[in-house]
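## tool: complex_structure
## caller: assistant
## args:
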Amino acid sequence: MNITFTLNGDEQSFEVEPGTLLIELLRDEGIWSVKRGDETGAAGADTVLLDGEPVSSEILLAAQVDGRNVTTVEDLGSIYNLHPIQQAYLDQGAVQCGYCTPGMILTTKSLLDETDNEPTRDQIEVALDGNMCRCTGYKRPVEAVETAAEQLEGD
Amino acid sequence: MVSDQADSNPSDQYKKVGVTTERVDGRKLVAGRGGFVDDVHKPDLLHIKVLRSPHAHATIEHIDASEAREMEGVHQVLTHKNVPRVKYTSAGQGWPEPSPYDQVMFDTTLRYVGDRVAAVAAETPEQAERALQTIDVRYEEKPAVFDPEEALEVDSPQVHTEEDPAGIAEPDRNLAAQLHAEVGDIQDGFDEADHVIENEYKVSKVQQTPIEPHISIGWMDEDGRLNLRTSTQVPYHVRRIIAPLIDGLDIKDIRVTKPRIGGGFGVKQEILIEDLVGTMAKRTDRPCKLELSREEEFHASRSRHPYVLRMKTGVDEDGSIRSNQMRLVSNTGAHGTHGLTVASVTGSKTLPLYKADNHLFEAKVAYTNLPPSGAYRGYGAPQGYFAVESHMDEVAREIGMDVEEFRRQNHLDEGDENALAVPLGEGGEGPPMHVRTCGLEECIERGKEAIGWDEFHARADEQEGPVKEGMGMAILMQATGIPGVDMGAAHAKMNEDGSFNVHVGATDLGTGADTALSQIAAETLHVDIDDIILYSADTDHTPFDVGAYASSTTYISGGAVKKAAEKLRDQILERASMMLEEPEDQLEVGDKVVRSTETGESVEYGHICKNAMYAEEQRQIQAVASNMSYDSPPPFAAHFVKVSVDTETGKVEVDDYVSATDCGIPINPQACHGQVEGAIQQAIGYALTEEMKFDDYGRMQNPDFDDYKILSSRDMPDIESILVETHEPTGPYGVKAIAEIPMNGAAPAIGNAIYDAVGVRLRELPMEPEDVLDALETKAQESQSRTGEPVA
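## result:
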């Protein structure tokens, strides 16, 4: 079947099988930031933004994003020009192995958009609840969200 | 609260180490172009799937894969019938491995639910999966054993019945390995002591759960050599261990590279998939990929060894310990992977933290029909510390001493020797462990202050309502690398802009090792971190390193980088002396320049390199160095927790957590804090929520993240990490280890805090709400039977 959706700002069409998962399509396209963590999406390394909301691309069919807007961390900033959220994760030491980091950054983006860059500590902890991390203990990611919020609020 | 700089500062003498710098791999990781194993397109890639045993103990009576072989898209099927029977251990340890050779690629006996039966390589994962289902297998089930103490009994089912056992202590009674170390006369001490106190503790089977599962891609390159891009902590051990397993390949025919990997924590010190990927790639001449599912990661990889530990302590009225004894039985599961050495680390890193006239340590490592245990961050020490630090708390309370005072009176200190280091070396006798630096007193002092220990205990009796607060502590020790065994090497060369390529076999598994090693190179060479281009973990292009385990990298591999960089610095000085026509002793190295102390004339690094490459007596300024150590300086730590225990629900909430660590000079303080905080996440899980649960048939009941509960952002307490600097004389720039020690404290500190809060002692992990309620009920009944009063 043929689907059309906006991927990182560009409208694109793809020929997919009905059972193709979104993560499979994205990784076939070389969108490497989207990671497999388990089969249920519980780990959150497979997070993408669907119309601005964090969703699990491991349990979402590609067909389900037809006509919609998909954003991955590649769209936020590149190594040459990091987004303030990416910079905050780096500055706060919120990155260790980095496998779950793109998912966390997308969750952060959604949270900061929703809260006009004024999330409470509780909102941050709830938002990141769906992004499992085995390296950092979450302290620095939470601080990175706060730093990014301050940064973006100031801009 | 947490500062990224240590407060007391022997590190002030340095510029590039002892300071937080951005991770060298950080930008690509936050930008999502990390370059993990799977982040490549390989044309014509085949997908491997593995058929696994549904039985805990069975033999394969018959296996027929002919239908699978004929199926569309299938290129290769492996079973025990078409692979060589070569015995090995999957434990990625140095040669010769201290783990028994009790595995083959595919066996006729299956020893746990999840054991390998067959593997298929096909064009798509779905085709491989479908083909697996057509393989006709007839199993003969055999009696299985799951409890390690039962396994050691005479009439127990025997897990390893192979005719040619190799390295197994006593296969006929399921004894994979055993240890006995006595220093002094243990019985004498018990006889003479004022009190003899005994307790039993149990610790559970838990999984490392790196978010990236094991994954490996292999292909035969244009020269017919096997290239493996794999998520491993031990690239060189992978190459050495799989070479004999794959048809006709020698070590020289294999190149192993480790790109970025998504965490390891010990489970990637295990060679779980590379032999299959290599064999499939060789046989099909196509790129092949195997990625474990989360379920396989749980029941078909490795986990922490569960133990039963029995402590016995003879102690005098004044708190001095006459005899201290630990006896444990370890459950290594179906294979003896790391069984001996994990137990040995329990003995040598936990019991001797307390000085005693006499020590006895004894371990029996039992085979069972559970999935194999293996290396997991802390490597025996978290198990041991739950017992030692719970028990010491009990001992102190029983003799009426303050728990903190008792610890301060008895802990190992500067100038002491670890009493058990020699008898409990890596698979035999080890070198002595000298304590040359110990910041434990300062750790205790600052940790107490940070959590408000004295203030809390001054008002602790005033609590009302069903939720009671309590505080607990634990003191800890680990080691830094395996003395006399671990070795890392580095190669470094200079470029015309004054930058340097540094090549190391060391294996960054997400810890920041590449960054720390770059900092060491930059410090030694007087350049910026940006001027170091570090490349690591490639068996063709980087020199040997044992890999990432035993908290060794910064100390061992960092030492190699420092030595290689020092050699470069000497060559740079020599060349500058030629160029400036001044003797070397009148020259000093500054920020990318060499300057004459006499004339003030200087020459830049770039110019020096160009001169060496192009001008006269041409040469490449380059150096190699290896580093090993007979010292393994122990880092020390004190952990403090405050918990709230709900006496109605049994729920234990960890409110505050303070860790104070002496890791020598922290090369990158921010990364060190990150190690501490991340370990505490795993350690609180070990204490309270994580447990691999098995049914009566040996099937894991909770092999997914919904049922196996690792802590999320919402579950974490406030953590304060304090770094207490000491300057370890044997380490490059004064370092000791950080990676494992913070894994050791949560379970005993929380257990001690629960006791402090509600007066019940939990001696089994995890400490779940029902355990708390049970213990409270037992306590109430005991007090009722004592007083004759009804329970409230």
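## assistant note: Chain B touches chain A through 58 residues (CB under 8 Å). The longest helix of chain B spans residues 553-580. Handing back to user.
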